[in-house]
């Protein structure tokens, strides 16, 4: 038997929708604005891609529980996180749009 959603359950889903939307949008803006300063280890790269993918899938699953303009903005940001990785080899490894190396950090041979 299907039960109607309670207000507490609907409120939790709305909060989760807003948190996922803010996470995706903030992560996208951070990776577009801030240059990467070092390459990630392979395991950290895969974990970062996994978090981005899970956030995007969770957002799609909760799309009916929040405002549609916020959903579309977060969806575009989530897709943009994966498009950043196609920008180049450094972007693939770091997840950031650009790279800049600080003095004292290890710089890979280019």
Structure, described:
The chain has one domain (18-94). The mean pLDDT is 87. Helix content is 64%, strand content 0%. Helix 2 runs antiparallel to helix 3. The chain has 110 residues and is mainly α.
Taken as a percent bin, the fraction of beta residues is under 5%
Per DSSP, the total helix count is: 4
As a percent range, the share of helical residues equals 55-70%
What does the largest sheet look like? none
Ends: how far apart? Answer: 62 Å
- Integer count of domains: 1
As residue ranges, the low-confidence spans are none
Based on helices, strands and strand pairing, what is the structural class? mainly alpha
Overall geometry: elongated
Please compute the radius of gyration using only Cα atoms: 17 Å
In N-to-C order, the SSE pattern is HHHH
What is the mean pLDDT?
Answer: 87
Number of β-strand runs: 0
Question: Short summary of the structure?
Answer:
The chain is mainly α. The protein is 64% helix and 0% strand.
Task: Kindly list the characteristics that best describe this protein.
0% strand; 110 residues; mainly alpha
Helices and strands in order, then pairings?
Elements: H1 7-33, H2 42-61, H3 68-84, H4 89-94
Helix pairs in contact: 1-2, 1-3, 2-3
């Amino acid at each position: 038997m299907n039960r109607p959603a309670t207000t507490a359950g609907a409120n939790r889903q709305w909060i989760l929708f807003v948190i996922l939307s803010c996470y995706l949008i903030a992560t996208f803006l951070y990776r577009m604005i801030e240059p990467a300063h070092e390459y990630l280890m392979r395991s950290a790269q895969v974990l970062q891609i996994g978090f981005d993918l899970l956030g995007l899938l969770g957002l799609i699953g909760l799309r009916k529980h929040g405002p549609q303009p916020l959903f579309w903005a977060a969806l575009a940001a989530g897709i943009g996180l994966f498009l950043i990785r196609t920008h180049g080899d450094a972007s693939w490894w770091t997840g950031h749009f650009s790279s800049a190396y600080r003095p004292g950090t290890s710089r890979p041979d280019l």
